[in-house]
Write a structure and sequence with these properties.
This protein is α+β, with helices and mostly antiparallel strands and 215 residues long. Helix content is 53%, strand content 16%. It has a two-stranded antiparallel sheet. Strands 2-3 form a two-stranded antiparallel sheet. Strands 5-6 form a two-stranded antiparallel sheet. The two termini are 50 Å apart.
Length: 215
């Protein structure tokens, strides 16, 4: 058995040489190996527990710009495209439904691609939360348009019930029953106006909470 004084390890003059295969395995990170001057390390399986060694530190930094341009920015734009469909007339049924459904399917495909390219984990990743929120907002826009179509379907029936019989005075002092229309409430326009404000506000609030928390 050799003692710590008998064995002393150290780096060669040319320092640490990194295998090129490491760069392929860490393609999502900026990395740097920094050699340490330590010559002794804790070794819990060794006798004695302190053994001679050489040490290097691996410093990783995530490539955030690539994820922002490839995942976060496009998905946010697809949410904005879905929200823009709220400014189209409700009569354009094929155009609005195709636009929202296409954006929704694109978001689902992006989420699937991101999960396949990301390492498997037992917890929910930050990108999963982002994609889930984008999908939920697109679904809300789709449900909102379905609600508008329901009101449009039953609009003739509602219009027929908005007239009431009220007494109308005439010159002879007698009363006569007449039909007086009541002011109609346009539920479609009200829903559209509320959703045009609600969806962007929800998305902005989510961004205000999401980015400070994960950055």
């Amino acid at each position: 058995m050799y003692t710590l004084d008998d064995i002393e390890m150290g780096w060669l003059a040319n320092g640490l040489i990194v295998d090129p295969a490491v760069e392929d395995k860490l393609s999502n990170f900026e990395f740097e190996f920094v050699s340490s001057n330590a010559t002794k390390c804790d070794c819990y399986e060794c006798i004695p527990p302190i053994a001679p060694c050489v040490r290097a530190n691996l410093i990783l930094s995530r490539k955030a710009l690539g994820h922002l341009l490839a995942t976060f920015l496009p998905s946010g734009l697809f949410v904005a495209v879905s929200w823009a469909s709220l400014f189209w007339p409700a009569d354009v049924i094929p155009g609005r439904t195709v636009l929202v459904i296409t954006s929704l399917l694109t978001l689902v495909s992006m989420h699937t691609a991101v999960r396949q390219s990301s390492p498997e984990t037992s917890y929910i990743k930050a990108v999963d939360i982002w994609m889930f929120m984008c999908i939920v907002l697109s679904i809300l826009i789709l449900f909102e348009y379905g609600l508008v179509l329901i009101f449009r379907k039953y609009k003739p029936f509602q219009s027929a019930l908005r007239t009431v019989q009220q007494p109308v005075a005439i010159k002879s002092g007698e009363s006569k029953r007449g039909a007086t229309p009541i002011a109609q409430v346009n539920h479609e326009d009200r829903i559209e106006k509320v959703t045009r404000i609600l969806i962007p506000v929800l998305f902005l609030l989510f961004n205000f909470v999401y980015w400070p928390h994960y950055l």
